[in-house]
Amino acid sequence: xxxxxxxxxxxxxxxxxxxxxxxxxxxxxxxxxxxxxxxxxxxxxxxxxxxxxxxxxxxxxxxxxxxxxxxxxxxxxxxxxxxxxxxxxxxxxxxxxxxxxxxxxxxxxxxxxxxxxxxxxxxxxxxxxxxxxxxxxxxxxxxxxxxxxxxxxxxxxxxxxxxxxxxxxxxxxxxxxxxxxxxxxxxxxxxxxxxxxxxx
Length: 200
Prior knowledge:
5 helices, mainly alpha
């Protein structure tokens, strides 16, 4: 029953993340798709240049929305690090789109708006799948959890505070206390003092 509950919680959390990621992705897609067409047919830039400019703008908006909404509960490892990784991974996603656009545009020589936008949609869809997987794995990391004891299934306790561990005992147990006038107590004290040879 506990396993089913844990599985349900993980599945529902994934669905929530997917819904938020999809909402952000839809907004970014409008910026990306609209911006690309504006650059391509409005400003008459090249097919690949248009895609690059629009993707950079859309990726910046997507990063901010994902950081502070989709995965705001996840560990923040520094905006500079996250932003760098985010754009490296977006660069890979962009490369996927550019390869498809370039194949349709230059290899198949299909340069009409319908072919261009079809390749744009396919490339964006494949790049989005890669982004979702890579963001969760490398950018927006889960919060650190304490180690779990394999025998009890409970979080392991941290190291003891308020003093150092006892010395000389077996498995961390202290030597038994003996009366000071017994030979065993004298020998034990000498053994624990470095550089002292017990009297014979």
